[in-house]
Structures are given as structure tokens and as C-alpha cells.
Design a protein that fits this description.
With 73 residues, the protein is mainly beta. The chain has one domain: Thiamin pyrophosphokinase, thiamin-binding domain (Jelly Rolls), CATH 2.60.120.320. Helix content is 0%, strand content 59%. The protein contains no helices and six strands. Strands 1, 2, 3, 4, 5 and 6 form a six-stranded antiparallel beta sheet that branches. The protein is globular and about 35 Å long.
Length: 73
Amino acid sequence: SRAVEGDPQDSVSIFPLSGPAAGVTLEGLEYPLENATLEPGDTLGFHNELIGNEARVSVGKGALLVVQETESP
């Protein structure tokens, strides 16, 4: 798993790369996932928010692109 660090309410979007991503787990975000499958074009991982200062993102199979938008400079 990988850590995503930032401020509460930072926007975090998760996108599958090169096909489906299976076993996706998101913790520490407003909309958590457990062992989900994300397909290209899905909106399931789009525009989530940190609920604290750190979230965890893990994937069992496939690759994910994690995009974080912060409010602070």
C-alpha cells in the first residue's frame, strides 16, 4: 500500500491504468473501498477527500494513478 499525505478535505482521485485494477482498497478517505475492482472510465474513484492527514491506497492486481489536489500553496 501507499500513503497519501495532505490536509483534510484535499481532493484525491484514483484511476486504473492499462485496464482494470482489482483488489483496490482505500482507507482514510471520505468514500472508502475494500477489495473493489475499478474499470477504465469508472467514476467510483473520482473526487474523494482525505478525512485526516493520511490515507492508504492499495491494489492487488493492476496499476493505479493517484491524483491529489491541495488547497494550500
